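Summary for the steering committee. The consortium agreed at its last meeting that each partner would contribute one worked example illustrating the joint modelling workflow. Our contribution is presented below. We chose a case with several input lines so that the handling of multiple components could be demonstrated. No manual editing was applied between input and output; the record is shown as generated.
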Amino acid sequence: MAFNGHQRDDDDIIDENETPSKQPRSDKEMPVHFRNEPNSESATTAGRATSDRRTSQSATRHRHDSVKKTRPPFPWFGMDIGGTLVKLVYFEPKDITAEEEQEEVENLKSIRRYLTSNTAYGKTGIRDVHLELQDLTLCGRKGNLHFIRFPTHDLPAFLQMGRDKHFSSLHTTLCATGGGAYKFESDFRMMADLELHKLDELDCLIRGVLYLDSVMSSGPSECYYFENPADPDHCVQKPCTLENPYPLLLVNIGSGVSILAVYSEDNYKRVTGTSLGGGTFLGLCCLLTGCSTFEEALEMASQGESTRVDKLVRDIYGGDYERFGLPGWAVASSFGNMMSKEKRESVSKEDLARATLVTITNNIGSITRMCALNENIETVLFVGNFLRVNTLSMKLLAYAMDYWSKGQLKALFLRHEGYFGAVGALLELLHPS
Amino acid sequence: MAECGRVDSNTSHTMDKSITLPPDEIFRNLENAKRFAIDIGGSLTKLAYYSTVQHKVAKVRSFDHTAKEAAGDKLYEISMQEEVTARLHFIKFENAYIETCLDFIKDHLVNTETKVIKATGGGAHKFKELIERKLGLKVDKEDEMTCLIKGCNFVLRNIPHEAFVYAKHADSEFRFQTTNPDIFPYLLVNIGSGVSIVKVESEDKFERIGGSSIGGGTFWGLGALLTKTKRFDELLQLASKGQHASVDMLVKDIYGGSYGYLGLTGDLIASSFGKSATADKEFSKEDMAKSLLHMISNDIGQLACLYAKLHNLSRVYFGGFFIRGHPVTMHTITYSINFFTKGEVQALFLRHEGYLGAIGAFLKGAEEDNPNQYSWGENYAGSSGLMSVSPDMNPMQRARSGTFDMLEMDRLERQLVNLPLLQDPSSYIPDTVDLTEDAPAREYWLYCFEEALDGVVKRAVASQPDMPEAALRAEKFRQKYRHKLQTLRQQPFAYGSLTVRSLLDTREHCLNEFNFPDPYSKIKQRENDIALKYYQKAVKSLDELSWEEKQFALVRGVLAGNVFDWGAKAVSDVLESDPEFGFEEAKRQLEERPWLVDSYDQWLERLKGPPHKCALFFVDNSGVDIILGVMPFVRELLSRGTEVVLASNSGPALNDVTNGELQILTERIAAMDPVIEAGLREDRLLLVQSGSSSPCLDLSRLDKVLAMVVRERQTDLVIIEGMGRAIHTNYYAMLSCESLKMAVIKNSWLADRLGGKLFSVVFKYEVPVGKPNKDCGAFSPC
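What follows is the complete predicted structure of the assembly.
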């Protein structure tokens, strides 16, 4: 699938024999696996190979059968088009009967093969293999759920591929959420002849969260928290479940941040939001350090020291500001040291990246804590792609919630950080609400 | 004013040693100074001291008329006396001048009682040694936040129009808040390098309930990194020119339009710096600075709202160097607060925000003097006014006026409180027209006061014939007041809402400053003399009238008397050119009924009912007005069985009768009139001072004793007389009892505006809504 924004014809080489890079394991947690290098080999154009079969009659028959079973026809996608990333979940049926196999149109097969046999698509598309859910039963069908993402700015390439593959001939409903479902609706129609079924992103988010938490019975727990958040040496990830989660403060950190108070599956409100989110972290890091990807920015942050950039309470008061119960280590002014020319000249890019991460994370923590107090909620669930491979921020949030609330608030996290909206969209396809 | 150059202060503070200070204008009254306090910030030093000011006051003393009638036919004697009053001085200057200033203070400090100087602010530590060496005073450090809060309480309580709302696109950018006597509880959001959010519940009870590390230091530090611009105010300049939408990811960038479901508009920022997450695009400094400013302002605003909501507070004041006098940050913070609270909470700013720390430190050191038991008043003559040195307001202005900003506050002899009869003290606005908002009116009145200046100078000189240097002082007065008028033309908001009252008060302050405490003393004396001679005749002719005729004649008398007014230009011209202009002539000049505002019929109906328990009468001018107009009216009230409290100015203002003068006049009238005599003797006629020295009237700042008397006597009628008190101020004042406002419009422009003509009459009798008067049939209050 050509997810790259650069449609170079010489990339369009089919490599049907490419070995899937890694098989997911459901028995234990997968190590984090990145594929952010351009991978021209995987940038196949299955669409071109199948283009001569676009008028296949079997699609009609297939759809007819599915309707009888009150199931939507394959393929089953859920899509969340955010400000920075497009999140796509794909259900790969594993219980396809011989008869079905025979009836299955070539288009569909090639899509399935392409998606499941690669882990990277084009220059920027990634399948988060470690998140794959296997042996899932959805709508009476058994299969695996795949989690794929690519940058929103590469959406035109995705649409081009959809057009080339005649995705529209499958007559499937494409359930999409996120702002992009609205913004790109006409592009989907014009470029790929696809009609989007637009869904509200917060409805999808909540549905997705509750669903994924409920299905994970085997394998690593979806939900976890950090034990001993105050002690870096003993701070460990512990599994838990979202049993009796309500009321719940759901903090979705994407490009920006939305904070929801959830009282039941279909009773929630958006409390507030902030524009200081993942997009701000990356945007500022790019400007300050010249990096260009989230992974690069995180890598730099992991090596930096924010206290060289930030002005701490002890920098001003020599120690704790006891009158107001402020510990000396607390940040008094983010980037406060950067008011001084000498200090500006002495910090490294890594320090700046770290300070940016700490600033944004603490601010989210601070706003979250105030919302929790105002809404009288003690359980806080952090989700969103800002937390992807970002243990630093998660531990900071866990610590901030614990410290400033004196243990009252508990920070919870979910493994599928940024995919809940897309999962919610898929569920809408299968079980329209 | 920006606390800029924090990082460079080491180099710059030695640089300006050669500067020569204009001493008599900046460190005034140093010879009597005691109790110093200093607040040294990142770039600005604020010095506070207490001093006593000796100035002349006009006193009147009655001659002993029984012994000899020969004292030149004069009713009383006027003398100029020296009086000592207390004043607080606050001076703000750049840290660069600190050494020069300390030297200057050292050289001029005579008082040796002072042993310590209270210090606060981040720079107090750095300059401790220098201060101790230069001044020989021990530096006693005070907690910054405590000082800030103390200072904040002080200005909120003592300075009318201290707090304002900032509205960038309104006719007037500054909307000043009326002083609410109940200042607690409030939230103070101090945006320094970080943010502190403090809940203040009472004078001594406050708590830092939260804060944020994203503050002014973040804007400055991150801004410097992003734009390579070093100075804080330059960063703000950049920001004011930028377009944030090229850097920020807006809702419409994600949705293509608005997010209708949640009511989020398309222009809302979804992700600050969301568009700069790329390596291959350049962004302008201006755009990045703007985006940063929005990000930080919105964040602070949001947190402030969350804290305000959690603690159920609706008054939120913003201060700190991020805010200090910068329209750009005041605007973004205001915007943020409006957005997050949907207009439920207003962002409030303070005119003297930069002085809070110094004021607080000073108060800490002066606790034994109990400064909080007094009322203090801003001295317009000695204070620079808002944004006098703001760089981004007017760079030229800054260069001209130098870098010294001043605030002076006079200790008022009397403690001032609300009139207990105000219907809603928190919404009471004394002034009828806010000249800050009304540009044509502002034009007119500034012109008017400028035109009148020559006459005021002339009279000031004439009032002190025995003093040869009076002419020189009068000239200084002219310069000072003209300069104030010019400042106000440029910055109408400099001293809070610009009003006719503030223009008059500023003139009085300037006159006092140059020792012209009472330019009208001799004129008043002469007029009082003349009027007294007619008193008995006037009363006699009134007594010959039928009841109904008499009531009307009394009202006409008050109105005609009120035509005698040196404060109004049209009248002072006539009086000056034709001293024979008499009482009868004035009556002829009056408009015939129906008057411009006319509820005389209702008043008459009311008079047919039972008498009032007690009437509070705010009197106006000396001479014919008080003696032939007001006194017969008072006499009638007393005869009806109504007690009367006559409230007159504590100190002189124009030709208004002062309490001192009124005491003598009333005694003289009592000697001729048994009704007045009995009133005084039986304690049914009281003379009380108002606490004011203004030709106008602020019912929220009245003498505490007056308020007490009003309460004790169960006052059920308030009479306000004259243009200054009943038209320029209090025209719309709502009282909880019956009120009567009487005035003659002696200014053709104002008459025009009100739809009348010169000498139109306002007779406004009001009964509070929802308080029908049971005793007097069916009349509808106007």
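The CA atoms of residues 78 and 426 of chain A lie 4 Å apart. Chain A touches chain B through 65 residues (CB under 8 Å).
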